[in-house]
Each structure stands twice: as structure tokens, then as C-alpha cells.
Amino acid sequence: MKIVIMGDDLKAQRLLDAFNSLRRVEWHKMPQPHGNCKLSEVRVLFFIKQGLRTDPRGVTISTLSSLMGVTSPTITPLIKNLESNGLVLRLNDQEDRRVVRVQLTETGEEFIRKAIGSLKERFQGIYNFLGEEKSAQLAELLEQVHQYILERQKEERNV
Length: 159
What we know:
Elements: H1 10-25, H2 39-54, E1 59-60, H3 61-68, H4 72-84, E2 88-92, E3 100-104, H5 106-158
Antiparallel strand pairs: 1-3, 2-3
Helix pairs in contact: 2-3, 2-4, 2-5, 3-4
């Protein structure tokens, strides 16, 4: 049963229905190579991998929290879970013992390689399904929607 929220504004209703249908698909819950890892933990692994490109000694908790836009206390339990699953190592910095650096283990490297492969496969599938032109249009439209939402949020904060 379709729920009509927008009244007789069919254009707005179609947009709402499209967003809701994507949300209901729960594609982030599709089989993943990350087994018992939470999606938030997989995101942390992506950011660790990215941070290691800049500093091979490891990524600090504060750097991770900054990159992800969350607080350090949010990151810490995720790192602890990843460490208990053998995906990361926490090491004290050689120059400043108060600083903790995080590195991927070999298992973590393999894990993130598979996760990246899975992500690439999904988006390549969408690209192949839509074709080059529609894929470019979709990306542009999503970027515009994102910009619109950011502008609206900024306006609402200034009111």
C-alpha cells in the first residue's frame, strides 16, 4: 500500500517515494565481506587505510575522529572491537607515549581489500545498469541534492 504524504503534489510525492524505496532496500545490509564487523567499524578501517598513506607509522585516534567528523570517545570502542577481531593494532607513539597510533594487521589489510572490491563491484554494477550518461546524471543530481540540503541546514541554523 502506497502512503500519500504530499497530497496532490505528485512531483514531490514521486521524489519522496524514490528516496524511501532506496532506504527500504537496506543495501548496506546485503552480504558483505566484513562478516561480524559493523558498518561503522568498516568505515573506520577505510579511514585507517587512507590515513596510512599519509603516515605509515599509524593513524592517531584524534586524526581518525577528525577525518570521520566524530569525537574520540566514539572511535575508541570501534578500535577496541577491531583490535579484538585481529584487524588493527594499537601502538604507542615512539616520540610521545601519550599518543596511540592505529595500524592495520595483515588480516585487516586483506579485509579492507575485500571490502573495497565489494564496494567497487556494487557501484560498477549500478554504472553498468544505468550506462555512462545516466550514471553521470545521477552523480550530478545527488551532488546537487547534497548541496541543497547543506544550504537548507545552514539557513535553518541562521534563523
